[in-house]
Amino acid sequence: MKGTITYKILKEHLVEGELHQGTEIGIRIDQTLTQDATGTMAYLQLEALGIDRVHTELSVSYVDHNTLQGSFENADDHRYLQSVAARYGIYFSRPGNGICHQVHLERFGVPGKTLLGSDSHTPTAGGLGMLAIGAGGLDVAVAMAGGPFYLAVPSVLRVNLVETLPPWVGAKDIILEILRRLSVKGGVGRILEYSGPGVKGLSVPERATITNMGAELGATSSVFPSDEVTFRFLKAQGRESAWRELSADPDAVYDEEITIDLSQLEPLAACPHSPDNVKKIKEIGPIAVQQVAVGSCTNSSYQDLRLVAEILKGKVIHPNVSLVISPGSRQVLEMLARDGTLANLVSAGARILECTCGPCIGMGQAPPSGSVSVRTFNRNFRGRSGTADASVYLTGPAAAAATALKGVITDPRELGDYPAIPEQPPVIIDDRMIIAPPPAGEPVAIVRGPNIKPLPLAEPLPDRLELKVLLTLEDNVTTDLIMPAGAKILPLRSNIPAISEYVFAAVDENFAARARAAGRSAVVGGENYGQGSSREHAALAPMYLGVRAVLAKSFARIHRANLVNFGILPLTFCDAADYDRIAPDDLLVIDALHAQLQNDTITVLNETRGSEFKVTHGLSPRLKEIVKAGGLLNYTRDKQ
Ligand code: MIC
Ligand code: SF4
Prior knowledge:
By secondary structure, the chain is α/β, with parallel strands linked by helices.
């Protein structure tokens, strides 16, 4: 990876280990971000770490997910987050100010710096040339406390962009094409580094659409060079002093390479229920649509919404379609409002929502039963919209607007000539909805609502485990399946006992009761177990219910790290065929576990079937100690 942007940034931040692919390194984290749905846990953990003030160059706490206030919980959490931010020296982006990734891009991102965020789409800032990584809240808390972030050195995949995009084809189509080629697990263990002559034609928000959805590939991160386009973006934001040039050396060594000829791309859509189920829109056919949603951290920039408005201008949406728009930030919304674009959207029939994640995480606007929803978002997992039997298609903003007009999934090229988009007005810079922390030493009281319950800790890892198998699951299990989100469950994010009742609820509504009855238990999965969100609740809540091991064919990076952080063993089958030889209710026994952890493989006895099989743990010496201690908090506390 010598000479790549990835290598340069990792090298500048290396504090432990060596840069050899696959080995564990520790890097210094310059900036952190959290959002409210993961933030309450992250800050409870930060409090437990017992520091006085954050050690990062910059830490920002955003409120953008849990913004419907149907009851007191979310509002209480916002107040807790505001007070804890002031207490520890963290900037607080108030509810309404925007989606964390969009605001971070606009106001805080710096090329060449490292950013760790408790949200899987943190790599959005890679569009600015940052090395931005998503992680569990506990890892982010440790980074805020000045600790390194540990990761296995990824391989670097060069994505060579050549030629230019045709009219009506956008950045979303580029990343959908990559998802089509590589699949939702194609990025695991990799950083995607963009280069080639096609890069300069992409604006920073377009680049950010692409790096954002690197999360859907399972990639550790995605990064663009920092060039003149980056400079112009930062200058427009009044932040040109943050710019530095960053590009790969001409003789940079990449581990792999793919080339995308932009001129050959067509409008694409990810079909239900996976972001890699990508087809050309013209081949999907005119399926009737009941909802179109524009926004999310993928496609909610001024540029995206302006395009939608130009397409809708003077027209009105189809009578069977509800069009909802959630702008990415207050900056975007204010610009749209001041230049009249907002009026065009409203007049076309758009329902304007807050500048938040909103429908993307099922926080309102669940589509009707059995309906089709076309969204400019990044995830279309079954049930995530809040409607179990809805079918969600992911497209770019042009296709979404065309679909809203026609009432059926529409290739935007059917609209004729691409609209003339006027020059973007000057960016409105107003940070008054971002509250800077008071100077160090000023007393701040932390305000805790009754929904905030203490953090449960796991017991240290016993030497003998008897585990009842609760579920055997397919490939690509998402964290949305393990720990669902949505308007009803998200307000319980600060209350593990309450939220744990919903673990795997879509698979088995008695899961929590069965887990409690089993005492210690295990879950079995296929490939890429735990893809998607960084929510550590998908590890923490099962741990609270007694799950002590997950056996799978392979794991998604962030979820695997979260399992270890909460004392759950992530075990990989040595022979994938053993997956077929386990059934729910089997009793698995692991003897002399501590000694076995010293070896590469562990022998598991399936007592129910009288058979034995082998698994690997792949844990570094540090991770072994963490899992033995019953998680990272115990481990850190024991070391103090
Ligand atoms: C998501 O898109 O699934 C989320 C909600 O932003 C999550 C974080 C969470 O579950 O709070 C993510 O992507 O990490
Ligand atoms: Fe929010 Fe959706 Fe982005 Fe997650 S993917 S941060 S829920 S907008």
